Amino acid sequence: AVVLAADVSRSIDDGEFALERRGYAEALESQKLIDAISTGPHGAIALAYVEWAGEGEQKLVVDWTVIRNADDARKFANLVEASPRSYVGRTAIGSAIDFSFAEFAESPFAAEKQVIDVSGDGTSNQGRAVTRARDAAVAGGAVINGLTIYNKRAAALGGYLALHTNPPGGLSNYYRKNVIGGAGAFVIPIEDFGSFGDAMLRKLVN
Question: Does the chain have fewer CB atoms within 10 Å around its N or its C terminus?
């Protein structure tokens, strides 16, 4: 069971948001993903798609769906692309983890593994501490992975926005220290929004 938790906070402009959404769809529709699912132990995965921004801004955009074949994946991807953007708020990663973890209890499907894939372009600046949310989810049996997007436009603006999207040591290092957790958890750095789909596909196949 995998929750795709997508950052839609205000540092992501409409063009970047469109690339992020398209990247999710392209990854879901890839034959490489379908091949990986079909050769897996159950021949299926359960997916849910969540968008998040500030504290209290989390939404289940596409409900739990079993993906077994290309048709299932295409329908899920179409729902992702067709939905309006949920928020344009601050960045509450801890709240996003709490919300995503709670979704496992709402799933009608039994799963041997529970994974939260958090994509984001900045550090948490609102809501409960990320590390507390991470530790609670991991203690509950979840694995949290990170996909960190380097927002070149925001970083070039300087000031707080640059620090938010490119903290000392880099955003991937921030995610490693604060966001990911559980057995085998990892971070995939993404060069820009245009390469999001390729990175998401690598994550899902792994």
Answer: C
Contact 118, 147 (CB under 8 A): yes
127 φ/ψ angles, rounded to the nearest 5 degrees: 85, -175
Q: Encoding tokens for residue 205?
A: 């196949």
What is the pLDDT confidence band of residue 189, given thresholds at 50, 70 and 90?
very high
Report d(CA 129, CA 199) in Å as an integer: 27
Of the candidates 66, 93, 64, 73, which has an alpha carbon nearest to the alpha carbon of residue 33?
Answer: 73
Q: How far apart are CA 102 and CA 167, in angstroms?
A: 29
Angle at 42 between CA 115 and CA 2, to 5 degrees: 15
Helix boundaries (H) for the chain: 14-29, 31-38, 70-82, 93-106, 130-139, 152-156, 159-165, 171-178, 196-205
